[in-house]
Amino acid sequence: MAIQNVVYYCWFGSTEKPAEVEQYIAGWKAVLDGFSFVEINETNFDVNINDYVRAAYEAKRFAFVSDYARLYFLNQFGGCYLDTDVEVCRPLDEFLSFDDSIIFSMEQFDHELTGVNTGTIISSAGHPLLQQLLATYDDELFSDLGDATLTINKRITEVLVSDYELKYRDARQHLAGSIEIFPSSVFCVENEEAYTVHRYASSWRTQLSPLRKVRRRIGQFVKRIIGRDRFARWYKK
């Protein structure tokens, strides 16, 4: 199935968008000629669709509502999803020819390879990975654990590592099930060849505690010593 030339983005909470977000959206429309644009919000998405989404919405943790909503809309209709802190630098038309596929890039955050970037996702409708990911929310209750709350990036990365042999490498990877992974230079970090750049408003973040900061620094050090793949396998045990 061909991928539709439509962009989805989320804005929950019925608040006015900051000027910066409006500028990003205007930039998309200037670059993505021939695309349509759909804002996902309370008018077209059921925030009571499951217990996880309902609890996240009631807690006003809208980034986690967006986590589920983006997967839901891509599964239903197919197309391109963009976070509202993503800058589009080049047309995305060439990726629409990846029939029956789902496309991600790797993510660089704070100069660290952190897994899969979900600020830009391009997918055909009904892709099996989307259905698998949506099912992970079925029996899960949302718990606001601050910075430790499971984000969609971590969720997808864990599934791709365990079930599809994703490697923590900032390189092109072809995974089973028509899952296409591009390096972070394509959909994440700023460079001359980037199609999109993720500017990271990080609305899911809360202030890190001193203990979390220390643990994060230790984790980064260990990953550099033993490698991200070995660290991921050890961490899951």
UniProtKB/TrEMBL annotation:
Name under which the protein is recorded: Glycosyl transferase
GO BP terms: mannosyl-inositol phosphorylceramide biosynthetic process
Name of a matching Pfam family: Caps_synth
GO MF, any single term: mannosyltransferase activity
Gene Ontology cellular-component annotations: membrane
InterPro entries the record matches: AfumC-like_glycosyl_Trfase (IPR008441), Glycosyltransferase_domain (IPR051706), Nucleotide-diphossugar_trans (IPR029044)
Signal peptide (residue range): none
